[in-house]
Amino acid sequence: MNQLLNEAIHLPEDQRLTLAHRLLMVGEPHASEDVEHAWDLEIRDRIARYDRGESRSRPAGDVFSDIDRRLCGKQYSYKDPFRVTIRATLFRDGN
User: Fold this and answer.
1) Buried-state track 12-33, b at ≥16 Cβ within 10 A, e below 16
2) What is the pLDDT of residues 72-86, one digit of tens each?
3) Of 33, 40, 60, 63, which sits with the fewest C-beta atoms within 10 Å of its C-beta?
């Protein structure tokens, strides 16, 4: 196990992230087509509301800090390397 970890640590960042994602997906239960369809509709609705100015985005660090505070009663400081604004062109283009 340690050898695998050591090899993974030395992968380029994009390959480490891909590996991490694939490992996490192994443990995820398979969602039914009905669930997938319902989420697709929800995502499209959220994007449409955002585009109409009916909702807004927040920095990821703020979101994660709020979650930590609610779940653990702790406050962490997240440096915000990205913002939680998902512009899903996949859905905007009608796919």
Assistant:
1) eeeeeeeeeeeeeeeeeeeeee
2) 876 555 554 443 333
3) 33
Q: Quick one: average pLDDT of 4-31?
A: 87
Domain count of the fold of the chain: 2
The domain of 94 spans 32-95
> Is the distance from CB of 64 to CB of 76 less than 8 angstroms?
yes
Q: How far is CA 39 from CA 6, 27, 32, 45, 63, in A?
A: 37, 20, 11, 10, 21
What is the reported pTM? Answer: 0.43
Q: Tell me, yes or no, whether 25 and 38 share the same domain.
A: no
Q: Does 14 lie in the same domain as 36?
A: no
**Looking at this protein, which amino acid is placed at residue 23?**
L
